[in-house]
Amino acid sequence: MATETPLKGFIPELDYEKEMNRWSHVFKFLSEPEPEVGHTPRNEVWRKNKSVLWHYPAKQKKYEIPLFFVYSLFNKPYILDIAPKVSVIEGLTNSGYEVYLLDWGSPGYEDKKIGLDTYIDKYLRTAVKRAIRHSEADEITLVGYCLGGTIASIYASIAEEPIKNLIVATVPIDFKPFVGPDKWAEGMRNGDMNIDHFIDVYGVVPPQVVDGMFRAIGAPIYFTNYTMLLSRAHDQRYVNKWRRMNRWTLDQVPFAGEAYRQLANNLFKENKLVKGELMIGNKKADLKNIKANLFVVSGSRDNLILEEQSKPIMDLVSSEDKTYFVVETGHVGLALSGLFAKIVDQWVSTRSNQL
Amino acid sequence: MSDKISFDPYESLHKLSLLWEKQLNEFIYLWTNNKEFVKMTNLGTEIHSRYLETFKKNQEALASVLNLPTKSDVTNVANLTIQAEEKMEALEEQMWELQDSVKSQSRDIESVIEVSKEIIKLTKQLKNELVQTKKELANSKDLHAELQEMKFELLKLNNFKEEFETLRGLIERGNRAEIELAGAGSSK
Lengths: 355, 188
Hints:
The complex is a heterodimer. Chain A is α/β, with parallel strands linked by helices. Chain A is built from 15 helices and twelve strands. Chain A has one domain (43-349): Alpha/Beta hydrolase fold, catalytic domain (Rossmann fold). An eight-stranded mixed β-sheet of chain A has the order 1-2-4-3-5-6-11-12, with helices on both faces. Chain A has a two-stranded antiparallel ribbon with strand order 7-8. In chain A, helix 2 (88-94) packs across helix 15, helix 3 (116-135) packs across helix 4 and helix 6 (196-202) packs antiparallel against helix 10 (257-269). Chain A is globular, with a radius of gyration of 23 Å. Chain B is mainly alpha-helical. Chain B has a domain at 13-68. In chain B, 91% of the residues lie in helices and 0% in strands. Chain A binds chain B through residues 9, 12-15, 18-19, 22, 48-49, 108-110, 112, 122, 126, 129, 133, 181-184, 186-187, 192-195, 197-198, 200-202, 219-224, 227-228, 230-231, 233, and chain B through 4-8, 10-11, 13-14, 17-18, 21, 24-25, 28-29, 32-35, 37-39, 41-42, 45-46, 48-50, 52-53, 56, 71, 74-75, 78-79, 82, 85-86, 89, 93, 96. Chain A: One of its GO terms (molecular function) is acyltransferase activity. Chain A: Keywords: Acyltransferase, Transferase.
Protein backbone atom coordinates (compact mmCIF):
# COMPACT_ATOMS: atom_id res chain seq x y z
CA MET A 1 0.00 0.00 0.00
CA ALA A 2 1.48 3.29 -1.14
CA THR A 3 1.61 6.19 1.25
CA GLU A 4 1.23 9.80 0.07
CA THR A 5 4.13 12.08 0.93
CA PRO A 6 3.28 15.41 2.60
CA LEU A 7 4.92 17.30 -0.36
CA LYS A 8 2.50 15.81 -2.94
CA GLY A 9 0.32 18.58 -4.26
CA PHE A 10 2.74 21.22 -3.03
CA ILE A 11 5.34 20.68 -5.77
CA PRO A 12 3.66 21.01 -9.19
CA GLU A 13 3.78 17.85 -11.26
CA LEU A 14 5.23 17.79 -14.73
CA ASP A 15 2.67 17.14 -17.47
CA TYR A 16 4.89 14.96 -19.67
CA GLU A 17 2.50 14.84 -22.63
CA LYS A 18 2.06 18.60 -22.73
CA GLU A 19 5.80 19.17 -22.42
CA MET A 20 6.53 16.63 -25.16
CA ASN A 21 4.09 18.44 -27.45
CA ARG A 22 5.52 21.82 -26.53
CA TRP A 23 9.13 20.96 -27.24
CA SER A 24 8.43 18.88 -30.34
CA HIS A 25 6.55 21.88 -31.79
CA VAL A 26 9.41 24.20 -30.83
CA PHE A 27 11.84 21.81 -32.50
CA LYS A 28 9.66 21.67 -35.61
CA PHE A 29 9.44 25.44 -35.65
CA LEU A 30 13.22 25.69 -35.57
CA SER A 31 13.92 22.97 -38.12
CA GLU A 32 11.01 22.93 -40.59
CA PRO A 33 10.70 25.27 -43.58
CA GLU A 34 8.35 28.23 -43.41
CA PRO A 35 4.62 27.44 -43.68
CA GLU A 36 2.83 27.71 -47.01
CA VAL A 37 0.61 30.71 -47.64
CA GLY A 38 -1.80 31.65 -50.44
CA HIS A 39 -3.94 28.56 -50.85
CA THR A 40 -6.92 29.92 -52.75
CA PRO A 41 -6.77 29.09 -56.48
CA ARG A 42 -6.02 32.14 -58.59
CA ASN A 43 -5.20 33.24 -62.14
CA GLU A 44 -2.97 36.03 -63.35
CA VAL A 45 -4.95 38.64 -65.25
CA TRP A 46 -2.40 41.36 -65.84
CA ARG A 47 1.20 42.14 -65.01
CA LYS A 48 3.15 45.38 -65.15
CA ASN A 49 6.66 45.88 -63.86
CA LYS A 50 6.53 44.00 -60.51
CA SER A 51 2.80 44.39 -59.96
CA VAL A 52 0.38 41.56 -60.68
CA LEU A 53 -3.40 41.54 -60.84
CA TRP A 54 -4.76 38.24 -59.52
CA HIS A 55 -8.22 36.85 -60.05
CA TYR A 56 -9.74 34.48 -57.49
CA PRO A 57 -12.81 32.91 -59.11
CA ALA A 58 -15.98 32.51 -57.04
CA LYS A 59 -16.76 28.96 -55.97
CA GLN A 60 -20.27 29.52 -57.22
CA LYS A 61 -20.87 33.02 -58.54
CA LYS A 62 -23.74 34.69 -56.71
CA TYR A 63 -23.00 38.38 -57.19
CA GLU A 64 -22.56 40.41 -60.34
CA ILE A 65 -20.23 43.07 -58.92
CA PRO A 66 -16.68 41.82 -58.18
CA LEU A 67 -14.49 42.83 -55.26
CA PHE A 68 -11.15 44.49 -55.96
CA PHE A 69 -8.60 44.42 -53.11
CA VAL A 70 -5.98 47.13 -52.73
CA TYR A 71 -3.43 46.26 -50.09
CA SER A 72 -0.83 48.39 -48.36
CA LEU A 73 2.52 49.23 -49.96
CA PHE A 74 4.32 48.37 -46.71
CA ASN A 75 3.65 44.62 -46.56
CA LYS A 76 2.88 41.68 -48.77
CA PRO A 77 -0.80 41.06 -49.43
CA TYR A 78 -0.78 37.33 -48.66
CA ILE A 79 -2.10 38.17 -45.19
CA LEU A 80 -5.47 38.22 -46.99
CA ASP A 81 -4.98 34.58 -47.98
CA ILE A 82 -2.87 33.38 -45.08
CA ALA A 83 -4.31 29.92 -44.41
CA PRO A 84 -7.26 27.73 -45.37
CA LYS A 85 -10.48 28.38 -43.43
CA VAL A 86 -9.24 31.73 -42.08
CA SER A 87 -8.36 33.28 -45.44
CA VAL A 88 -10.29 36.49 -46.17
CA ILE A 89 -10.18 35.87 -49.92
CA GLU A 90 -11.24 32.23 -49.57
CA GLY A 91 -14.15 33.30 -47.36
CA LEU A 92 -15.34 35.77 -49.98
CA THR A 93 -14.97 33.42 -52.96
CA ASN A 94 -16.91 30.79 -50.98
CA SER A 95 -19.63 33.38 -50.42
CA GLY A 96 -19.96 33.79 -54.20
CA TYR A 97 -17.87 36.86 -55.04
CA GLU A 98 -15.38 37.20 -57.85
CA VAL A 99 -12.29 38.63 -56.13
CA TYR A 100 -9.41 40.58 -57.67
CA LEU A 101 -6.24 41.50 -55.82
CA LEU A 102 -3.59 43.94 -56.95
CA ASP A 103 -0.22 42.80 -55.62
CA TRP A 104 2.10 45.80 -55.85
CA GLY A 105 5.20 43.59 -55.78
CA SER A 106 8.59 44.49 -54.32
CA PRO A 107 10.03 47.62 -55.93
CA GLY A 108 13.69 47.62 -56.93
CA TYR A 109 16.15 50.49 -57.28
CA GLU A 110 14.81 51.09 -60.79
CA ASP A 111 11.40 51.95 -59.28
CA LYS A 112 12.70 54.82 -57.17
CA LYS A 113 10.72 57.38 -59.17
CA ILE A 114 7.39 55.66 -58.70
CA GLY A 115 5.26 57.95 -56.59
CA LEU A 116 1.80 57.55 -55.13
CA ASP A 117 0.42 59.32 -58.20
CA THR A 118 2.11 56.80 -60.52
CA TYR A 119 0.87 53.88 -58.41
CA ILE A 120 -2.68 55.25 -58.55
CA ASP A 121 -2.81 56.55 -62.10
CA LYS A 122 -0.72 53.99 -63.95
CA TYR A 123 -1.09 50.85 -61.88
CA LEU A 124 -4.31 50.91 -59.89
CA ARG A 125 -6.44 52.58 -62.57
CA THR A 126 -5.24 50.17 -65.26
CA ALA A 127 -5.75 47.19 -62.95
CA VAL A 128 -9.31 48.28 -62.16
CA LYS A 129 -10.02 48.70 -65.88
CA ARG A 130 -8.63 45.21 -66.52
CA ALA A 131 -10.67 43.71 -63.69
CA ILE A 132 -13.87 45.31 -64.97
CA ARG A 133 -13.18 44.03 -68.48
CA HIS A 134 -12.16 40.58 -67.23
CA SER A 135 -15.25 40.20 -65.05
CA GLU A 136 -17.58 41.64 -67.73
CA ALA A 137 -19.23 43.60 -64.94
CA ASP A 138 -20.55 47.15 -65.25
CA GLU A 139 -19.36 48.24 -61.83
CA ILE A 140 -16.82 47.26 -59.18
CA THR A 141 -16.34 47.30 -55.39
CA LEU A 142 -13.00 48.63 -54.11
CA VAL A 143 -11.70 47.16 -50.85
CA GLY A 144 -8.70 48.92 -49.33
CA TYR A 145 -6.81 47.67 -46.29
CA CYS A 146 -4.52 49.88 -44.21
CA LEU A 147 -2.53 52.20 -46.53
CA GLY A 148 -4.30 50.36 -49.37
CA GLY A 149 -7.47 51.99 -48.05
CA THR A 150 -5.86 55.43 -48.31
CA ILE A 151 -4.75 54.66 -51.87
CA ALA A 152 -8.21 53.28 -52.76
CA SER A 153 -9.88 56.40 -51.32
CA ILE A 154 -7.55 58.73 -53.24
CA TYR A 155 -8.20 56.78 -56.42
CA ALA A 156 -11.98 56.72 -55.82
CA SER A 157 -11.92 60.52 -55.57
CA ILE A 158 -10.46 60.90 -59.08
CA ALA A 159 -11.77 57.72 -60.72
CA GLU A 160 -13.62 57.76 -64.00
CA GLU A 161 -14.27 54.04 -63.69
CA PRO A 162 -17.63 52.90 -62.28
CA ILE A 163 -16.99 52.27 -58.56
CA LYS A 164 -20.20 51.25 -56.85
CA ASN A 165 -18.90 50.52 -53.34
CA LEU A 166 -15.82 51.60 -51.43
CA ILE A 167 -14.76 49.56 -48.40
CA VAL A 168 -11.82 50.69 -46.30
CA ALA A 169 -10.45 48.96 -43.22
CA THR A 170 -7.99 50.25 -40.62
CA VAL A 171 -7.37 53.17 -42.93
CA PRO A 172 -5.28 56.28 -42.21
CA ILE A 173 -7.07 59.31 -43.70
CA ASP A 174 -6.26 62.02 -41.18
CA PHE A 175 -2.52 61.89 -40.51
CA LYS A 176 -2.59 64.40 -37.66
CA PRO A 177 -3.17 61.85 -34.87
CA PHE A 178 0.04 59.86 -34.43
CA VAL A 179 0.65 56.77 -32.28
CA GLY A 180 4.40 57.37 -31.93
CA PRO A 181 6.26 59.95 -29.84
CA ASP A 182 4.67 63.35 -30.37
CA LYS A 183 8.01 65.18 -30.63
CA TRP A 184 8.91 63.02 -33.63
CA ALA A 185 5.72 64.06 -35.39
CA GLU A 186 6.40 67.67 -34.45
CA GLY A 187 9.98 67.37 -35.78
CA MET A 188 8.76 65.94 -39.08
CA ARG A 189 6.17 68.68 -39.46
CA ASN A 190 8.37 71.65 -38.59
CA GLY A 191 11.34 70.45 -40.64
CA ASP A 192 13.67 69.35 -37.81
CA MET A 193 13.59 65.91 -39.41
CA ASN A 194 14.03 65.75 -43.16
CA ILE A 195 14.27 62.48 -45.04
CA ASP A 196 14.52 63.85 -48.60
CA HIS A 197 18.29 63.44 -48.87
CA PHE A 198 18.13 59.95 -47.38
CA ILE A 199 15.51 58.94 -49.98
CA ASP A 200 17.50 60.49 -52.83
CA VAL A 201 20.57 58.45 -51.88
CA TYR A 202 18.81 55.16 -51.19
CA GLY A 203 16.31 55.31 -54.09
CA VAL A 204 14.08 52.75 -52.45
CA VAL A 205 13.64 52.60 -48.69
CA PRO A 206 15.09 49.22 -47.59
CA PRO A 207 12.70 46.80 -45.86
CA GLN A 208 14.85 46.89 -42.73
CA VAL A 209 14.30 50.64 -42.48
CA VAL A 210 10.55 50.20 -43.04
CA ASP A 211 10.49 47.54 -40.33
CA GLY A 212 12.60 49.71 -38.02
CA MET A 213 10.26 52.65 -38.56
CA PHE A 214 7.21 50.62 -37.51
CA ARG A 215 9.11 49.19 -34.56
CA ALA A 216 10.20 52.64 -33.46
CA ILE A 217 6.66 53.99 -33.63
CA GLY A 218 5.00 51.07 -31.85
CA ALA A 219 7.33 49.01 -29.71
CA PRO A 220 11.10 49.30 -30.29
CA ILE A 221 11.68 46.29 -28.04
CA TYR A 222 9.51 43.35 -28.99
CA PHE A 223 10.13 39.82 -27.78
CA THR A 224 6.89 38.83 -26.06
CA ASN A 225 5.75 37.08 -29.23
CA TYR A 226 8.43 34.46 -28.53
CA THR A 227 7.48 34.00 -24.87
CA MET A 228 3.85 33.78 -25.96
CA LEU A 229 4.83 31.07 -28.43
CA LEU A 230 6.71 29.19 -25.75
CA SER A 231 3.79 29.32 -23.34
CA ARG A 232 1.35 28.00 -25.94
CA ALA A 233 3.69 25.81 -27.98
CA HIS A 234 1.82 22.63 -26.91
CA ASP A 235 -1.12 23.78 -29.09
CA GLN A 236 -0.40 22.83 -32.71
CA ARG A 237 -3.06 25.18 -34.09
CA TYR A 238 -1.61 28.15 -32.26
CA VAL A 239 1.92 27.28 -33.41
CA ASN A 240 0.79 27.11 -37.05
CA LYS A 241 -1.02 30.43 -36.75
CA TRP A 242 1.98 32.01 -35.01
CA ARG A 243 4.39 30.77 -37.68
CA ARG A 244 2.27 32.19 -40.50
CA MET A 245 1.93 35.52 -38.71
CA ASN A 246 5.66 35.57 -37.95
CA ARG A 247 6.51 34.87 -41.57
CA TRP A 248 4.29 37.71 -42.74
CA THR A 249 5.60 40.16 -40.12
CA LEU A 250 9.22 39.54 -41.10
CA ASP A 251 8.44 39.57 -44.83
CA GLN A 252 8.71 43.32 -45.35
CA VAL A 253 8.95 44.92 -48.77
CA PRO A 254 11.07 47.88 -49.85
CA PHE A 255 9.21 51.14 -50.40
CA ALA A 256 9.62 53.13 -53.62
CA GLY A 257 11.49 56.35 -52.74
CA GLU A 258 9.21 58.88 -54.42
CA ALA A 259 6.11 57.26 -52.96
CA TYR A 260 7.70 57.38 -49.49
CA ARG A 261 8.58 61.04 -49.95
CA GLN A 262 5.01 61.88 -51.01
CA LEU A 263 3.60 59.85 -48.14
CA ALA A 264 5.86 61.64 -45.65
CA ASN A 265 5.53 65.15 -47.06
CA ASN A 266 2.07 65.38 -48.66
CA LEU A 267 0.16 63.11 -46.31
CA PHE A 268 1.98 62.99 -42.98
CA LYS A 269 3.55 66.45 -42.91
CA GLU A 270 0.98 68.55 -44.73
CA ASN A 271 -2.10 66.30 -44.28
CA LYS A 272 -3.23 67.25 -47.80
CA LEU A 273 -5.81 64.47 -48.18
CA VAL A 274 -8.01 65.78 -45.37
CA LYS A 275 -7.56 69.35 -46.60
CA GLY A 276 -8.57 68.32 -50.15
CA GLU A 277 -5.31 69.66 -51.58
CA LEU A 278 -3.66 66.44 -52.75
CA MET A 279 -2.86 66.37 -56.47
CA ILE A 280 -2.69 63.14 -58.47
CA GLY A 281 -1.31 64.05 -61.88
CA ASN A 282 -3.34 67.09 -62.86
CA LYS A 283 -6.37 66.10 -60.81
CA LYS A 284 -7.25 67.22 -57.31
CA ALA A 285 -7.93 64.23 -55.08
CA ASP A 286 -10.77 65.70 -53.05
CA LEU A 287 -12.63 63.09 -51.01
CA LYS A 288 -15.90 64.96 -51.49
CA ASN A 289 -15.86 63.64 -55.08
CA ILE A 290 -16.56 60.15 -53.69
CA LYS A 291 -20.20 59.27 -54.22
CA ALA A 292 -19.85 55.48 -54.00
CA ASN A 293 -21.46 53.60 -51.11
CA LEU A 294 -18.92 53.72 -48.28
CA PHE A 295 -18.12 51.20 -45.55
CA VAL A 296 -15.38 52.00 -43.02
CA VAL A 297 -14.07 49.36 -40.60
CA SER A 298 -11.87 50.20 -37.62
CA GLY A 299 -10.29 48.04 -34.96
CA SER A 300 -10.86 49.18 -31.39
CA ARG A 301 -7.56 47.52 -30.35
CA ASP A 302 -5.61 48.83 -33.35
CA ASN A 303 -2.43 50.36 -31.93
CA LEU A 304 -1.07 51.47 -35.31
CA ILE A 305 -3.99 53.23 -36.99
CA LEU A 306 -6.22 55.01 -34.52
CA GLU A 307 -9.97 55.37 -34.95
CA GLU A 308 -9.47 59.14 -35.09
CA GLN A 309 -7.43 58.62 -38.25
CA SER A 310 -10.17 56.67 -40.06
CA LYS A 311 -13.34 58.41 -38.88
CA PRO A 312 -12.90 61.77 -40.69
CA ILE A 313 -13.57 60.10 -44.05
CA MET A 314 -17.21 59.78 -43.01
CA ASP A 315 -17.67 63.56 -43.09
CA LEU A 316 -15.42 64.20 -46.07
CA VAL A 317 -17.18 62.09 -48.72
CA SER A 318 -20.43 62.90 -50.54
CA SER A 319 -21.75 59.33 -50.35
CA GLU A 320 -25.36 59.04 -49.24
CA ASP A 321 -25.00 55.42 -48.17
CA LYS A 322 -22.17 55.31 -45.62
CA THR A 323 -21.52 53.05 -42.64
CA TYR A 324 -18.88 53.15 -39.91
CA PHE A 325 -18.20 49.90 -38.09
CA VAL A 326 -15.91 49.19 -35.14
CA VAL A 327 -14.63 45.67 -34.48
CA GLU A 328 -12.92 44.58 -31.29
CA THR A 329 -9.66 43.56 -32.92
CA GLY A 330 -6.14 44.78 -33.67
CA HIS A 331 -4.59 46.10 -36.86
CA VAL A 332 -3.71 42.73 -38.36
CA GLY A 333 -6.18 40.53 -36.44
CA LEU A 334 -9.03 41.61 -38.68
CA ALA A 335 -7.36 39.99 -41.69
CA LEU A 336 -5.51 37.24 -39.85
CA SER A 337 -8.66 35.77 -38.30
CA GLY A 338 -10.67 35.88 -41.53
CA LEU A 339 -13.27 37.99 -39.70
CA PHE A 340 -12.95 40.69 -42.34
CA ALA A 341 -14.56 38.40 -44.95
CA LYS A 342 -17.71 38.02 -42.85
CA ILE A 343 -17.93 41.74 -42.13
CA VAL A 344 -17.47 42.65 -45.80
CA ASP A 345 -19.99 40.01 -46.93
CA GLN A 346 -22.63 41.26 -44.49
CA TRP A 347 -22.42 44.79 -45.80
CA VAL A 348 -21.68 44.31 -49.50
CA SER A 349 -24.06 41.38 -50.26
CA THR A 350 -27.04 43.71 -50.61
CA ARG A 351 -25.03 46.11 -52.74
CA SER A 352 -23.50 43.68 -55.25
CA ASN A 353 -26.45 42.86 -57.53
CA GLN A 354 -27.31 39.31 -56.50
CA LEU A 355 -27.68 36.99 -59.48
CA MET B 1 -7.43 14.63 -11.21
CA SER B 2 -8.42 17.84 -12.93
CA ASP B 3 -7.49 20.17 -10.04
CA LYS B 4 -3.86 19.07 -10.09
CA ILE B 5 -1.41 21.90 -10.65
CA SER B 6 1.12 20.95 -13.31
CA PHE B 7 4.56 22.43 -13.88
CA ASP B 8 4.08 25.30 -16.33
CA PRO B 9 6.38 28.27 -15.73
CA TYR B 10 5.97 29.56 -19.30
CA GLU B 11 2.79 31.51 -18.60
CA SER B 12 4.54 33.35 -15.77
CA LEU B 13 7.57 33.94 -17.99
CA HIS B 14 5.28 35.44 -20.64
CA LYS B 15 3.59 37.73 -18.10
CA LEU B 16 6.98 38.82 -16.79
CA SER B 17 8.29 39.42 -20.33
CA LEU B 18 5.22 41.56 -21.10
CA LEU B 19 6.06 43.66 -18.09
CA TRP B 20 9.73 44.01 -19.08
CA GLU B 21 8.86 44.84 -22.64
CA LYS B 22 6.36 47.48 -21.60
CA GLN B 23 8.81 49.07 -19.17
CA LEU B 24 11.67 49.05 -21.66
CA ASN B 25 9.48 50.59 -24.38
CA GLU B 26 8.20 53.24 -22.03
CA PHE B 27 11.78 54.05 -21.07
CA ILE B 28 12.79 54.34 -24.74
CA TYR B 29 9.73 56.47 -25.41
CA LEU B 30 10.65 58.89 -22.65
CA TRP B 31 14.29 58.86 -23.68
CA THR B 32 13.59 59.65 -27.35
CA ASN B 33 10.52 61.86 -27.16
CA ASN B 34 12.33 65.18 -27.26
CA LYS B 35 13.53 67.73 -29.80
CA GLU B 36 17.20 66.99 -29.19
CA PHE B 37 16.80 63.34 -30.10
CA VAL B 38 14.92 64.27 -33.29
CA LYS B 39 17.65 66.74 -34.26
CA MET B 40 20.38 64.21 -33.49
CA THR B 41 18.60 61.57 -35.58
CA ASN B 42 18.27 64.04 -38.42
CA LEU B 43 21.95 64.86 -38.19
CA GLY B 44 22.87 61.16 -38.12
CA THR B 45 20.67 60.46 -41.15
CA GLU B 46 22.20 63.40 -43.01
CA ILE B 47 25.79 62.29 -42.27
CA HIS B 48 24.94 58.72 -43.28
CA SER B 49 23.30 59.92 -46.50
CA ARG B 50 26.27 62.14 -47.42
CA TYR B 51 28.72 59.34 -46.74
CA LEU B 52 26.70 56.94 -48.86
CA GLU B 53 26.31 59.51 -51.62
CA THR B 54 30.06 60.07 -51.82
CA PHE B 55 30.67 56.35 -51.80
CA LYS B 56 28.18 55.84 -54.64
CA LYS B 57 29.72 58.65 -56.69
CA ASN B 58 33.15 57.11 -56.34
CA GLN B 59 31.82 53.70 -57.22
CA GLU B 60 30.08 55.10 -60.33
CA ALA B 61 33.28 56.87 -61.37
CA LEU B 62 35.36 53.74 -60.94
CA ALA B 63 32.80 51.58 -62.75
CA SER B 64 32.76 54.07 -65.59
CA VAL B 65 36.54 53.85 -65.97
CA LEU B 66 36.46 50.06 -65.84
CA ASN B 67 33.44 49.91 -68.19
CA LEU B 68 31.43 48.02 -65.61
CA PRO B 69 27.67 48.31 -65.49
CA THR B 70 26.24 49.80 -62.31
CA LYS B 71 22.79 49.72 -60.79
CA SER B 72 22.06 53.04 -62.54
CA ASP B 73 22.67 51.34 -65.90
CA VAL B 74 20.38 48.50 -64.87
CA THR B 75 17.80 51.14 -63.86
CA ASN B 76 17.96 52.72 -67.31
CA VAL B 77 17.46 49.35 -69.00
CA ALA B 78 14.59 48.49 -66.63
CA ASN B 79 12.95 51.83 -67.41
CA LEU B 80 13.10 50.99 -71.11
CA THR B 81 11.35 47.70 -70.39
CA ILE B 82 8.68 49.49 -68.38
CA GLN B 83 8.21 51.97 -71.20
CA ALA B 84 7.83 49.07 -73.64
CA GLU B 85 5.30 47.49 -71.28
CA GLU B 86 3.34 50.73 -71.15
CA LYS B 87 3.35 50.97 -74.94
CA MET B 88 2.12 47.39 -75.19
CA GLU B 89 -0.55 48.25 -72.68
CA ALA B 90 -1.64 51.29 -74.68
CA LEU B 91 -1.74 49.15 -77.83
CA GLU B 92 -3.78 46.51 -76.06
CA GLU B 93 -6.23 49.15 -74.89
CA GLN B 94 -6.50 50.49 -78.43
CA MET B 95 -7.19 46.93 -79.59
CA TRP B 96 -9.93 46.69 -76.96
CA GLU B 97 -11.45 49.88 -78.31
CA LEU B 98 -11.25 48.46 -81.84
CA GLN B 99 -12.78 45.20 -80.68
CA ASP B 100 -15.52 47.11 -78.93
CA SER B 101 -16.22 49.24 -81.99
CA VAL B 102 -16.22 46.12 -84.22
CA LYS B 103 -18.58 44.46 -81.78
CA SER B 104 -20.87 47.46 -81.72
CA GLN B 105 -20.72 47.65 -85.53
CA SER B 106 -21.54 43.95 -85.72
CA ARG B 107 -24.45 44.59 -83.41
CA ASP B 108 -25.55 47.47 -85.69
CA ILE B 109 -25.19 45.26 -88.75
CA GLU B 110 -27.15 42.54 -87.03
CA SER B 111 -29.90 44.98 -86.21
CA VAL B 112 -29.84 46.27 -89.82
CA ILE B 113 -30.09 42.66 -91.03
CA GLU B 114 -33.00 42.11 -88.67
CA VAL B 115 -34.72 45.23 -89.98
CA SER B 116 -33.98 44.16 -93.59
CA LYS B 117 -35.46 40.76 -92.86
CA GLU B 118 -38.53 42.44 -91.53
CA ILE B 119 -38.71 44.65 -94.63
CA ILE B 120 -38.32 41.63 -96.93
CA LYS B 121 -41.00 39.82 -94.99
CA LEU B 122 -43.25 42.84 -95.24
CA THR B 123 -42.53 43.21 -98.98
CA LYS B 124 -43.35 39.58 -99.53
CA GLN B 125 -46.52 40.02 -97.59
CA LEU B 126 -47.35 43.12 -99.63
CA LYS B 127 -46.58 41.23 -102.83
CA ASN B 128 -48.87 38.41 -101.79
CA GLU B 129 -51.51 40.93 -100.91
CA LEU B 130 -51.01 42.59 -104.31
CA VAL B 131 -51.42 39.29 -106.09
CA GLN B 132 -54.47 38.65 -104.04
CA THR B 133 -55.77 42.11 -104.82
CA LYS B 134 -55.06 41.57 -108.50
CA LYS B 135 -56.96 38.34 -108.38
CA GLU B 136 -59.75 40.00 -106.53
CA LEU B 137 -59.66 42.80 -109.08
CA ALA B 138 -59.88 40.28 -111.89
CA ASN B 139 -62.71 38.58 -110.10
CA SER B 140 -64.42 41.89 -109.57
CA LYS B 141 -63.98 42.62 -113.31
CA ASP B 142 -65.68 39.34 -114.12
CA LEU B 143 -68.31 40.17 -111.62
CA HIS B 144 -68.65 43.58 -113.21
CA ALA B 145 -69.06 41.97 -116.63
CA GLU B 146 -71.57 39.59 -115.21
CA LEU B 147 -73.32 42.42 -113.52
CA GLN B 148 -73.31 44.33 -116.79
CA GLU B 149 -74.72 41.30 -118.45
CA MET B 150 -77.27 40.96 -115.73
CA LYS B 151 -78.04 44.63 -116.06
CA PHE B 152 -78.42 44.22 -119.77
CA GLU B 153 -80.65 41.27 -119.26
CA LEU B 154 -82.59 43.12 -116.66
CA LEU B 155 -82.96 45.93 -119.13
CA LYS B 156 -84.11 43.41 -121.64
CA LEU B 157 -86.47 42.03 -119.09
CA ASN B 158 -87.68 45.51 -118.34
CA ASN B 159 -88.27 46.09 -122.05
CA PHE B 160 -90.00 42.79 -122.24
CA LYS B 161 -92.06 43.74 -119.23
CA GLU B 162 -92.96 47.03 -120.84
CA GLU B 163 -93.82 45.25 -124.06
CA PHE B 164 -95.73 42.73 -122.06
CA GLU B 165 -97.54 45.52 -120.22
CA THR B 166 -98.30 47.19 -123.53
CA LEU B 167 -99.52 43.92 -124.90
CA ARG B 168 -101.57 43.37 -121.79
CA GLY B 169 -102.98 46.86 -122.17
CA LEU B 170 -103.78 46.18 -125.77
CA ILE B 171 -105.34 42.84 -124.88
CA GLU B 172 -107.35 44.44 -122.10
CA ARG B 173 -108.43 47.18 -124.47
CA GLY B 174 -109.29 44.55 -127.10
CA ASN B 175 -111.31 42.61 -124.52
CA ARG B 176 -113.11 45.73 -123.44
CA ALA B 177 -113.87 46.59 -127.06
CA GLU B 178 -115.16 43.12 -127.61
CA ILE B 179 -117.39 43.36 -124.56
CA GLU B 180 -118.66 46.73 -125.70
CA LEU B 181 -119.30 45.37 -129.18
CA ALA B 182 -121.07 42.36 -127.75
CA GLY B 183 -123.21 44.64 -125.49
CA ALA B 184 -124.13 46.83 -128.41
CA GLY B 185 -125.12 43.81 -130.48
CA SER B 186 -127.51 42.42 -127.89
CA SER B 187 -129.25 45.75 -127.23
CA LYS B 188 -130.13 46.12 -130.91
